[in-house]
Amino acid sequence: MGTASSLVSPGEVIEDGYGGERGEACEIPVEVKPKARLLRSSFRRGPRVIGASFKSTGSVDLEYAAEYERLRKEYEIFRVSKNNEISSMQKKEAKLDEENKRLRAELQALQKTYQKILREKEGALEAKYQAMERAATFEHDRDKVKRQFKIFRETKEKEIQDLLRAKRDLEAKLQQLQTQGIHIYDPNDSDSDDNQTTVTAAGTQCDYWTGGVLGSEPSMGSMMQLQQTFRGPEFAHSLIDVEGPFANVSRDDWDAAVASLLQVSPHVPQALWSNTVRCYLISAQDTKAELDIFIKKHSWALRRMCEGLGHFYLNVCFCEEAAASYVMERKQEIERSSVCVLLLKSTVTSSIVEDCEEAFVKNPDGHSLVLYLRTEKDHNLPGPIRQLLEKVNAADKAAKIKVIDHCGTTEEGANLIHAQLEKVIKQELLGFEGADVDSKDSAVDEGQEEDSGDVLWDLRDEQEQTEAYHQACSSTTTQLGFQKYLDRLNDMIAAPPPTPPLLVSGGPGSGKSLLLSKWIELQQKQSPNTLFLYHFVGQPLSASSESVLIIKRLTVKLLQHFWSISGLSMDPSKILEEFPRWLERLSARHQGNIIIIIDSIDQIQQAERHMKWLIDPLPVNVRVVVSVNVETCPQAWRLWPTLHLDPLSPREVRSVVNTECQAMDLRLTKDQEKKLERHCRSASTCNALYVTLLARMITSARSCWSLDESLEQCLQCHDTMSLYRLSLKMMLNSFSTERERLIMREMLCIVYASHNGVSESEVLDLFPELELPLLSSLLHHLNRLCIVTLRCGLIRYQHLQAWEAVRLEFLGGGSSSAAYREKLIHYFNQQLSQDRVTWRVADELPWLLQQQEDRTKLQLSLLNLFVSQNLYKRGHFSELLAYWQYVGKDKNSMASEYFDSLKSYEKTCESEDGMTKLANLYETLGRFLKDLGLPSQAVAPLQRSLEIRETALDPDHPSVARSLHQLAGLYVQWKKYGNAEQLYKQALEISENAYGAEHASVARELESLAMLYQKQNKFEQAEKLRKRSVKIRQKTARQKGHMYGFTLLRRRALQLEELTLGKDSADCSKTLNELGVLYYLQNNLDAAKVFLTRSLEMRQRVLGPDHPDCAQSLNNLAALHTERKDYKTAEDMYERALDIRKKALSPDHPSLAYTLKHLAMLYKRRGKLEKAVPLYELSLEIREKSFGPKHPSVATALVNLAVIYCQLKKHGDALPLYERALKVYEDSLGRSHPRVGETLKNLAVLSYEEGDFERAAELYKRAMEIKEAEPSLVCGNAPSRHSSSGDTFSLRGPAPLPQAPR
Questions:
Q1: Which of 35, 755, 954, 957 could in theory staple to 847 by disulfide, Cβ–Cβ 3.0 to 4.6 A?
Q2: Is the pLDDT assigned to residue 1100 strictly greater than 70?
Q3: How many CA atoms lie within 13 A of 4 on its CB side?
Q4: How far apart are CA 5 and CA 2, in angstroms?
Q5: Is-contact 1224 1192, C-beta < 8 A?
């Protein structure tokens, strides 16, 4: 037995007897107390040492040694443990120090962040207060939308249950019919991309939520189709299959029809769209008596009538003595004339024969023709007269010439000529067919107001822009080198959004306007779904350079595209402020691009201030292109993407010069060509305008200089300005008398001093000694030298450099212009004294007085009530305000002055005509004060206008309805909706009784009532009235169209008829096809069928029965039979066309897809759904190949196919198609797009059919939310389009969007 220390040595390995792991023994300090028995036995064995004590030596030493060893070991253990603790504490301390440092750093960073956030908060608060001020105008609309949405959500839950119950009832009825063996289908059902839906305009939809019970039920064979919401790339076509300009023209869109006609018919005479009625008179000596009586007695009445209707009138006559000297001028005047009158009796001169050949034989369709034949009692005609009449009669195949056969006195003959001309001007030229036109200004203004509703604007501003565009397109200036610019324009427009405006820069005369007009022309042909809004700025200080009028015109054009121009403010500041909002709202409703082009934007008055919207982000489908001169471009705009026009290359210079020389039958020598080439090498001598002017001066100076002399003189001019000044001197030297030189100088100075130019008739009035042949020759030569042009009936400068050259050459730098302004002031004051207030007086006189700084006379002219009325009713509200501000009058002072003037004028009114004018003036004053923001002062004049009309006219007169309409508008402004509703209904009743139920005035009252109901949250009543109004607008647009719409189409049709009288040919058959299309556009289906049938027969003879052109004719004829409900014939023709195109065209050709679509649509109408399925599947395949699987067109094809499957009860096949279409629409158009809503609605119907009622309700609710969120043109808020991500429409690929297959 022993202790553990005695049994185990240090370092010895021991084992655990219980299976534990092996371990190593170690010394353990243990106190040892041996037992006595053990000690005694051990001492007993050894010898006893004498003198030794066990107690002192063994026991004591062993105890102290053991104790010492124990204490030492405990100390070591304690020391080691404490050292370990100290080490651990040090580590913790170091760790805490590091953590402390980190926290201190974080604290400092947080303090800095806090300070930064605090500063940002202060800045944000300041920005918030500023934003709250800007957002004040939106608060009312926001609250209104919230209320409407709350009401909508509360009512739609109940409505959906009612719809579901009604659906079950209809299904029960359907089952009863099916048990009786009756097959049901909807003949009016149409594909989503057909032109069969009720559309408000090209590009808009009246209301796409027109389905029946929860959409349209698949079980009834009329499942809800995705209707045509926009005029997009795949919805642009009518049923007629047309290649070229008419491929995308709807019969409801006359503006597009006329625009397309003008684009592709440059031979349509200028007289059809000019603002001047030019009467070309051809007379011999023996009919001079009738001619003199007509000019002296009747032409003045015709002039008054035309000026009252907003046009100029001009008699053009070359006497026999001077006719030979003006051959070129006579030909040009005949070409520009609106109507030609031939007066014959017994003699015929060579000049008469030449003029008759030009007017009556070569171009009989270019203008109206009147033949006055003075016969004797025996009715015998001389031989030359008979021959001429036979030639004229042979050319008049359509019997269009109006013949006046007269044998009475000369005065009676002149009366007959006047009566016939008045009828022609009213009915054929100005479009007032069958109407008794009053020449008073009020009548004209009322008519214009009737077209535009409550928005007042000037049709002449639009006509001026149209003429500017077409003149630029028809320019003979070279296009060499433009292709690279056109390609770069296309690339820059196709850049991914958001994109800033594109800057087209270049020096003066570098061809910017020509480039933009050519680009617009090409883009309109290639991308008909793109909406183009363009503006060409004219000479400085003219109306075309006023920023408010420019923005207002662009806004009105934008609103007209969507058949609504209500809600547009007249306040100039609001017009500028609201344009970006209108652009954002309406761009959200337009699928495709909206491109705004402003030429010479740097010439706009205060451009940087009033064009701030250009700096803001544009909607994703909006592009802006502006042109500027390099020298005058604002610095802030230079950061935009820029396309700079380079000078012409030597090859292009030679081409321009050679073209002009060949036109004048002139040939330059090689030395002369080398001189020109060496000269035109600097930047100032090789721009387009300089080279064109140089070439024309060389070819036109032969009358006063030789070719070498003119070339030498021109080469001394090293810039366009000096060349223009030389051309003016050259023109002066070409005249033989000082009188002619003086007239030219005075006329150019008068044009310079005017506001918008002067008319030819005004020039003749200002210079009584000037005869028209000389004026015509003068204008012809000035136009050839690029100095002046005729635009909107006014003589204007072609280029800014010409305007500047006249200022330097004739006006001493402008110091003498005041005298010419005084001359114009005197002329227009004379017209005022004769009680002739035309639009020209209102445009020019106040502006001239303002330029002369004569505030007293300016105020007097403004207080002429008819001047102010003319300005206001033509939409020049901002101009009128600017004049009053210049005079120094505020709003209340203006109102007081006008009231005093009206009171004075009222004392002089006694006749019925005078009282009618007085009522019009009171109405104009009331509207003017309302637009000024003085509604309380506007009540009195409007009520007075109503009283006068009810008393002087009749309580049921249409004018009374206008007064009621204006008063109702005031009550709406005051939120007295009950009174307003009563007045609107009264005005509606009067208009319906006076004009019938389908007049534009009725549509205006319906729109106003709809807006009123919308303000009162009566949405169903408002929608019903709005639909009726849109239908009336569409019908009146088809009936009236553009002012010259019917005339243009009629003339074009007659021209095409002339072309079809020749031998059979491919071109002739194509012309016949186009002629059929034109008659189709005029809704003349009988005539269309005749010409389309002739086209088909000729193509079969010339090209063979299997040619693709025959398929086009078959397709068009099938479309006509479809409209006439002759479905069997249409089906046969579609199938023949499809067979031809399958053989002749590639499997993915657009024309093949077009025929597939319409044949499938016809099968569906006839209930042949099984035959329609493969066609829809093939159409889907073609679209996927053409556009890719994620294009909206593919989604439309998916929806069409899904609808067919639902009608065939194949719901399982339809569901994935709908879901895929929904995904494509959401990805490409955004989650809030109306087409997404339609697809959701279809899915809701399908889910209901499958019995999943909860999902059906959920999908339908989301569809209704999308419908509710659709932007309203009146008060809705459009989703933001400033970003190309999220729920916005993103332009992918080249812009404009590619055209889908027909």
A1: 755
A2: yes
A3: 10
A4: 8
A5: yes
| Phi (first) and psi of residue 624, to 5 degrees | -125, 130
CA 1071, CA 242: separation in Å to the nearest integer?
12
- Quote the tokens at residue 530: 């793109």
Burial 221-233 (b: 16+ CB within 10 A, else e): bbbbbbbbbbbbb
Distance (Å, whole) CA 273 – CA 462: 12
Match 């009692």 to its residue by tokens. 377
SS3 1298: coil
Q: For residue 970, how many C-alpha atoms fall within 13 Å in the half-sphere facing its CB?
A: 24
CB 1204 within 8 A of CB 1176: yes
Of the candidates 592, 594, 591, the residue with the CA atom closest to the CA atom of residue 582: 594
- CA nearest 1082: which of 1110, 1111, 1051? 1051
Residue 265: the pLDDT is 38
Residue 757, helix vs strand vs coil: coil
SS3 category, 824: helix
What is the C-alpha separation between 1074 and 243, in angstroms, rounded?
9
| 450 or 519, higher pLDDT | 519
Reduced to 3 states (helix: H, G, I; strand: E, B; else coil), residue 278 is strand
Cβ burial, residue 45 (10 Å; 0-12/13-18/19+): exposed
β-sheet bridge partners, residue 281? 317, 341
CA Rg value for the chain: 44
DSSP structural state of residue 702:
G
- 157: which residues sit within 8 A by CB, 6+ positions away? 1261
Query: E strands within 640-682?
Result: 642-644
Beta pairing class for 23-24 and 13-14: antiparallel
Helix (H) or strand (E) holding 374: strand 368-374
Residues 6+ apart with CB under 8 A from 1028: 1006
What is d(CA 298, CA 281) in angstroms, rounded to the nearest whole number? 14
* Integer angstrom CA distances of residue 516 from 483, 490, 504, 628, 764: 12, 12, 9, 12, 35
Nearest to 1198 by CA among 1171, 1168, 1223, 1230: 1223
Count of residues in the chain = 1302
Smallest CA-to-CA distance from 148 within 1120, 1302, 1138, 1023 is with 1023
- Asked if 195 contacts 250 with a C-beta cutoff of 8 angstroms, the reply is yes
Residue among 462, 524, 528 at smallest CA distance from 203: 528
Residue with tokens 């019970």: 213
Whether the link from the prior residue into 497 is cis, omega within 30° of 0, is: no
Token readout for 683 is 């930047």
Task: For residue 244, name the pLDDT band (cuts at 50, 70, 90).
Answer: very low
341-380: per-residue pLDDT in tens? Answer: 988 888 888 888 888 888 877 776 667 788 888 877 666 7
CA 661 – CA 672 distance, rounded (Å):
12
Phi, psi (deg, nearest 5) at residue 956:
-105, 15
Task: Name the token pair of 715.
Answer: 């080469």
> Half-sphere exposure (CA, 13 Å, Cβ side) for 465?
22
> Is 312:761 a contact under the CB 8 Å cutoff?
yes
End-to-end CA distance of the chain: 116
Phi, psi of 518 (to 5 degrees): -65, -40
pLDDT cut 90: percent of the chain above it: 13
Give the angle subtended at the CA of 1297 by the CAs of 1295 and 1302, to the nearest 5°: 155
The kind and range of the H/E element at 758 are strand 758-759
For residue 520, give both structure tokens: 């617009």
Amino acid at 198: T
CB 894 within 8 A of CB 884: yes
Inter-residue contact 583 to 619 (CB < 8 Å): yes
Q: Taking a C-beta distance cutoff of 8 angstroms, is the pair 1083, 1120 a contact?
A: no
Distance CA 390, CA 344 (A): 13
Write down the pTM of the prediction.
Answer: 0.65
